From TrEMBL:
It comes from Papaver atlanticum. The keyword Methyltransferase applies. GO terms for molecular function: S-adenosylmethionine-dependent methyltransferase activity. PANTHER family: PTHR32183, THIOL METHYLTRANSFERASE 2-RELATED. This is Thiol methyltransferase 2.
Length: 226
């Protein structure tokens, strides 16, 4: 009897997991199509065309963890190349085939080419062979539908090593309707990260934010405590 119950529970859990995965896959397919169209049409206003200034400052101060680094929603990959060095191997992940192609073209002659790679995959279903010491999120959290944010938090927990660091550039924090980018707040991040044992080590205004992002962007640094 106990064996049967165990089999039934396993079957029920598998069904629930499959249902959740199918639902997320549907959302991801919708998300994927939208961004591929943007890249194909050159509608990439989020692309600064250079590494993010605050990231360069963090790198200069040498305060970031070494090891494996993930940049989800990497786009053209400027930040991926900036982070990469012999002490940090960086994976730039993007769901857009055209975006990844562009990133590879831009970075093909980089002297640190052996220290990074670009992967075309869905952040929410991708299964890497190894997890990461550092994850850097800029214009990714704000680009996904708000209903997908809880799954974003789950994936951050799955992909980051215990005691690893998550960097979040929180934009846009000003009042606005619609999106993407969708309005974000510190509370939005706390809501999906705290249940997974993430604690903020610092949250500050990004004084190096570019253009209209200035005054509407914060830098969050989070530690995965368990």
């Amino acid at each position: 009897m106990e064996d049967r119950r165990g089999e039934e529970n396993h079957s029920n859990n598998s069904t629930i997991f499959s249902s959740k995965l199918e639902k997320m896959q549907g959302l991801s397919d919708e998300y994927s199509g939208r961004w591929e169209i943007c890249w194909e049409q050159g509608d990439t206003g989020w692309d600064l065309g250079q590494p993010t200034p605050i990231l360069l400052q963090l790198l200069e101060k040498e305060t970031l963890p070494k090891g494996r680094v993930l940049v989800p929603g990497c786009g053209a990959g400027h930040d991926v190349v900036a982070i990469a060095n012999p002490e940090r191997y960086v994976v730039g992940l993007d769901i857009s085939k055209t975006g990844i192609k562009r990133a590879r073209e831009i970075s093909s002659s980089s002297p640190s080419a052996k220290c990074f790679e670009f992967v075309e995959a869905d952040f929410f279903t991708w299964r890497p062979t190894e997890i990461f010491d550092l994850i850097y999120d800029y214009t990714f959290f704000c680009a996904i539908e708000p209903r997908m944010r809880a799954s974003w938090g789950t994936r951050m927990h799955e992909l980051l090593k215990p005691d690893g660091e998550l960097i979040t550039l929180m934009y846009p924090t000003n009042d606005r309707d619609g999106g993407p980018p969708f309005k974000v707040s510190v509370a939005d991040f706390e809501e999906v990260l705290h249940p997974w044992g993430f604690k903020a080590t610092s949250i500050t205004d990004n004084e190096l934010a570019v253009g209209k992002r200035k005054g509407n962007e914060k830098l969050g640094r989070w530690k995965r405590c368990h």
